[in-house]
Design goal:
Elements: H1 2-13, H2 15-39, E1 43-49, H3 55-65, E2 68-74, H4 77-85, E3 93-94, H5 98-106, E4 141-153, E5 176-178, H6 182-192, H7 202-215, E6 221-222, H8 226-232, E7 237-241, H9 242-251, E8 255-258, E9 264-271, H10 280-290, H11 293-303, H12 318-321, H13 330-333, E10 336-338, H14 346-358
Parallel strand pairs: 1-2, 1-3, 5-6, 5-7, 9-10
Antiparallel strand pairs: 4-7, 4-8, 4-9
Helix pairs in contact: 1-2, 6-7, 7-14, 8-9
Amino acid sequence: MERSMRHFSMHSLGLKNYQMFFITIGIALIVMLIVGCDGGKEQLNVFTWSGYVSDEIRSGFETEYGVNVIVDTYANNEDLLAKLQAGATGYDIIMPSDYMVSIMIKENLLAELNRDNIPNMQNISPLFLKKYFDPNNTYSVPYTFGTAGIAFDSSVVNPAPNSWSVLWDENYKNQFSMLDDQRETIGAALKLLGYSLNTSEPEQLELAKEKLIEQRPLVKQYKSEAEELLIAGDVVMAHCWSGDAFRAAEVRPTIRYIIPKEGSSQFIDTVCIPKSAPHKDLAEKFINYLLRPEVNAKITEFTKYGTCVPDAKKHLPEDLQKHYFIYPPAEVMESLEWLIDQGDFTKQYSRAWEEVKAK
């Protein structure tokens, strides 16, 4: 009976169809094997700055928790905000800077953190908690802190600059870059003019805009990832964040970094969970993982930004524990400002930036 049934099947289906039937079954089995090996893993989706989550940190979390971590990047806070406002979903972790956290809270874009799932918050220095942008750390956890300034190749730029004015020097036309960041770059012009980074005076903002339009023909590129330009030698100076300068210096030892005498910005970059996050519990495990001292030290080693976890310092090499610009002295800190959300006046900053970029 069995033999006759198999004989019937081959003739009923036809030889060609019979072969296709087994090919289809084979493909299905392969797909099932692939899914069984990896597809069942939970996935954590991280949206962050370039150069902020190392492969070592990502793979360490993947191995310990049996998950996949996918990292996507953005160039500035405004790009992050625009993507979330446009309805982007699927991200579990984002890393906005201080002032952007306050904006996102107002926009109802962030999830409240469950502290029970993040016991390692106790490792954070009180110096970095309860800041103006999230007074009770309801929505954010400090990740790193740093400054903005000027990186330069000391083998080319001589004498060493000490002022923002060097970025208006025609001798360096087409040899330097500016951050592709409206608050930071307008802020550099404001500081040069003797104003606050957080001015809400239309006349001061207008003067800063005109100063940047004057500078526009000298700028080689607006780019937030200045590290790449410095390493490649595409520029000899860059308006950049401190960590980018220090990472570039590892590859090109002649790179130096200064905070201009007129002052600059300081920032805390944070870890937050978007309200639309599909894996909130896993995201909180990831935050807790980042706050382990030994892991947090790896963040500083990789990013070259300061750690907010005091016990992480003991895991750092001595040069990073005592780095002058990662942990600036009091006199330098006094010249720094936090960027603060300007509310409705932010539209004026955006309009000014659009006009500068359009030239």
